[in-house]
Amino acid sequence: MQFLALIYSAEGSDDVDMPTLMSQYQDFGNEAGSQGILDGGNALQPVATSTSVQVRDGSVIMTDGPFAETKEQLGGYYLLNCKDLDAAVQWASKIPTARYGTIEIRPVMTFD
Predict the structure, then answer these.
(1) Residue 72's pLDDT band (boundaries 50, 70, 90)?
(2) pLDDT tops 60 at residue 14
(3) What's the helix, strand, coil split of the chain in %, to 5?
(4) Cβ–Cβ under 8 Å, residues 8 and 47
(5) Is the pLDDT of residue 10 over 90?
(6) How many domains are there within the chain?
(7) Statement: the pTM of the whole predicted model exceeds 0.90
(8) In a 3-state reduction of DSSP, which class is residue 15?
(9) Cβ(84)–Cβ(3) under 8 Å?
(10) 20-69: per-residue pLDDT in tens?
(11) CATH code of the domain in which 90 resides
């Protein structure tokens, strides 16, 4: 079963230096990949580069930045292939940002 692990943190809140953090992420990716858990993932550009799109009354409305006002922004994701939610939680807890941010786990919907 696939789970999307969404990585949220307040931009600039990293309590470790960037080379250390990137090394920790690389270690996570190597471990999850070697176990057959990692199906993909990417880091995202800073929230200032985002554009939100809505369609209202047939018109497209574009807004710079994220739609919701929040302290934490989506910074990246992993697509995890786990047997169940318990396994997904175990893997998500290994994502470095879990120590100071939030990892949202959501099952991927499959269609017949």
Answers:
(1) confident
(2) no
(3) 30, 35, 35
(4) no
(5) no
(6) 1
(7) no
(8) coil
(9) no
(10) 889 999 999 999 999 999 999 998 888 788 888 888 999 988 887 765 56
(11) 3.30.70.1060
